[in-house]
Amino acid sequence: MTSSNLLASLPAQAAAKHSAKVTDWTDRIGWIVGLALFVALVYWLMRQGWQWRRTLQGGLPELPQRPGQTGPALLEFDGRYHGSTTAGQWLDRIVVHGLGVRSKVRLTLTEDGLDVDRTGAPGFFVPAAALRGARLDKAIAGKVLTEGGLLVVTWEHGGTLIDSGFRAERAAVHPAWVDRINALSGDRAIVFTDTDTDTDTARRDRKAAPDPLKAKEGAR
């Protein structure tokens, strides 16, 4: 190849290299739009599911609030609130009245009950008479932690048994809470066994303390 031909081919080679960098923006924009629509659809379905649950749980009364005065604190910690479910069903999330919102929490136990003071979400108060015991667990409302990483408090509200899950900044304090809450619950405490968090509905055998009124009726 002569020098003149070589010089003539240089602009063509440069143009070819430049054209190779051109991107087909039509395809790329199409993929981006499709992905955005998919994410929007998933979000909409999740929101609809949340609204559906809220409608089904609309019969649950407003959450009780802390009375003006309570006794001295027996126990307290700062940690996280991980959600509430129907008692014994770790995936049956309760979302009404803000119970489905995970948040920071300051938990205080007194002889009068359990005060749940949440950051960025409505707080509530569980009277001592509504406590149905506590246990160590590892999962609630779809959140799975290490074994014993959750303090799960069972309580009754509006005729519904509820599990609420908490985690202290130091999980080592959880056993003391279980003992205290079970002591306050007394004969009303409910014991859950055979926890299985690998199924869609946790299978738990619930053993409740015998009802003294039913026992009297049976004796007649």
Question: What would a concise description of this structure say?
Answer:
The protein is 32% helix and 31% strand. The chain has helices at 3-20, 25-56, 174-185, 212-219; strands spanning 75-86, 93-94, 103-110, 113-119, 124-127, 131-137, 139-140, 143-144, 150-157, 160-168, 190-193, 205-208.
Rg over C-alpha atoms, rounded to the nearest angstrom: 29 Å
β content, as a range? 25-35%
- Average pLDDT for all residues: 79
Overall 3D shape: elongated
The helix/strand order is: HHEEEEEEEEEEHEEH
In helices, the fraction of residues equals: 25-40%
Number-wise, the strands total 12
Distance between the termini: 117 Å
Largest sheet, in brief, is:
8 strands, antiparallel
**Number of helices in the DSSP assignment:** 4
Q: List the uncertain runs.
A: 195-220
Summing up helix and strand content along with how strands pair, one would put the structural category as alpha+beta
Task: Provide the fold topology.
Blueprint: H1 3-20, H2 25-56, E1 75-86, E2 93-94, E3 103-110, E4 113-119, E5 124-127, E6 131-137, E7 139-140, E8 143-144, E9 150-157, E10 160-168, H3 174-185, E11 190-193, E12 205-208, H4 212-219
Antiparallel strand pairs: 1-2, 1-3, 1-10, 3-4, 4-5, 6-9, 7-8, 9-10, 11-12
Can you give a write-up of this model?
It is a single chain. The chain has 220 residues and is of the alpha+beta class. Helix content is 32%, strand content 31%. It has four helices and twelve strands, in the order H-H-E-E-E-E-E-E-E-E-E-E-H-E-E-H. A hairpin with a 6-residue loop joins strand 1 (75-86) and strand 2.
